[in-house]
Design brief:
Blueprint lengths: L9 H8 L3 H9 L12 H11 L22
Helix pairs in contact: 1-2
């Protein structure tokens, strides 16, 4: 049986992450948005956790590269 990482139940995600289902349910109550059917997209949850814990920065809306430095000797 194949697991769809785009539509996990709380129990499936908890097993995959080695977490307690209650912790994931608390995150849902804290604002994590599930899929319309109540399932969880694995990467969306990972990104949400990173942002929640301050390990993710939003990219520039335009991404014009103005803050990127290039090594011209490369």
């Amino acid at each position: 049986m194949t697991t769809n990482l785009n539509a996990l139940t709380v129990a499936q995600l908890a097993k995959l992450l080695g977490a307690k289902p209650a912790a994931i349910e608390a995150d849902i109550r804290s604002g994590f948005r599930t899929n319309p059917d109540g399932t969880i997209h694995y990467l969306s949850y990972a990104a949400w956790l990173s942002k929640k814990h301050g390990r993710f920065e939003e990219p520039d809306a335009i991404g014009d590269g103005a803050d990127v430095e290039f090594d011209e000797g490369a």
